[in-house]
Amino acid sequence: MNPALRRFVRDYAAVAGTALLLIIVICAVFGPWFAPYPNDAFDTNPLNSLLPPSAAHWLGTDTLGRDVLSRTILGARVALFVSIVTILGSMMIGVPLGLCAGYFGGASGQVIMRLTDLFLAVPQLILALAFAAIMPPSAGTAILALTLTYWPYFCRVVFGEARRVRSSVFIDALECTRCPRWRIVFAHVLPNVAPAIVVRATIGMGVTILTAAALGFLGLGATPPTPEWGLMIAESRPDLPGGWWQSTFPGIAIFVTVLAFNLLGDSVREVIDPRQRRSS
Fold first, then answer.
1. Taking the chain, what is the end-to-end CA distance rounded to the nearest angstrom?
2. Do residues 162 and 98 touch, judged by C-beta distance below 8 A?
3. How far from 78 is each of 56, 82, 118, CA to CA, in Å?
4. What CA–CA distance (Å, rounded) separates 179 from 199?
5. Beta partners for residue 61, in sequence order
6. What pLDDT was estimated at residue 271?
7. 38-52, 111-125, 255-269: least confident range
8. Residue 2 confidence (pLDDT)
9. Cβ-based neighbour number of residue 225 at 10 Å
10. Which residues of 126-148 are buried (b: 16+ CB within 10 A; e: fewer)?
11. How far from chain centre, in Å, is Cα 78?
């Protein structure tokens, strides 16, 4: 077995995070097939309004008579879609800018990093709220707002790693052979900073899901009747504390998903980055 894979398998946190994430992915992909009431996740039924957890509805129903378990399962698809698209968009912006600033430097590098510092000076949620507030509420708005506020994290990480690789002897040797600089960047620098990108992306998935839920809770993300966890918690507020199950189970789903990505991200960092490994 590969040594890195062996370390990963022996890490209980990594195994737990992977198992939780696998369950969430299964819910996202196959949710409509095994959700108990997939149609009731969208269609209202006033006769079933605010039913407590029972054998018929394991997690109860909301104020519109929709099955909470079905909506929570289907909400995994929305959460993963928003987070994956956001992380990919952030990487497309932050990684090239970080490589350019870290390897080429100069005035352009200074401009890029000062812009990055400007974004990082403001908490991401506050900045995302500002971007989302000027656009109509939707899942697309949440994705755009999160992408525009998360790319600096990739840029900062890639900048630091690119600077480290740039000072390596093999880069000096390649430059002495008059190898094209862009070839050096994409064929030699980028592969060496890829582990840091993977770690940031894994941890960023959890952060993005949490921030997207906050946007949905504040009415700046997904709109009804989309089964989005933050929106489900917001819709349950008028019925609290009586209808506690409406907000409790979507909140647990958010907690478990973020925890899974954090556990996995920390374990991946220890496996692929020797400087972060715990002493055994």
1. 18
2. yes
3. 25, 6, 30
4. 30
5. 67
6. 76
7. 38-52
8. 65
9. 15
10. ebbbebbeeeebebebbbbbbbb
11. 12
204 CA to centre of own chain? 5
State pTM to two decimals: 0.91
Task: Give the span between the Cα atoms of 38 and 271, in whole angstroms.
Answer: 39
pLDDT digits (tens, 9 = 90+) for 82-102: 999 999 999 999 999 999 999
Please state which CATH number belongs to domain 3-36+58-276. 1.10.3720.10
Tell me how far the alpha carbon of residue 105 is from its chain's centroid: 29
Q: Is 132 helix (H, G, I), strand (E, B) or coil?
A: helix
Rounded to whole angstroms, what are the CA distances from 156 to 46, 97, 196, 233? 51, 9, 11, 34
Token digits of residue 183: 């070839």
Residue type, 270: E
Domain boundaries of the chain, sorted by first residue: 3-36+58-276
d(CA 256, CA 269): 20
Q: Give Cβ neighbours of residue 14 (< 8 Å, ≥ 6 apart).
A: 8, 263, 264, 267, 268, 271
In the chain, how many H helices and how many E strands?
11, 0
One-letter amino acid at 34 equals F
Q: 219, 206, 263, 256: which is closest to 72 by C-alpha?
A: 256
3-class secondary structure, 61: strand
Q: How far apart are CA 151 and CA 128, in angstroms?
A: 12
- Tokens describing residue 245: 């199950």
| Cα 94 from Cα 116, distance rounded (Å) | 9
Q: Distance between CA 128 and CA 145 in Å, rounded?
A: 5
The residues with which 67 forms a beta bridge, in sequence order, are: 61
Indicate the residue type of 185.
Answer: V
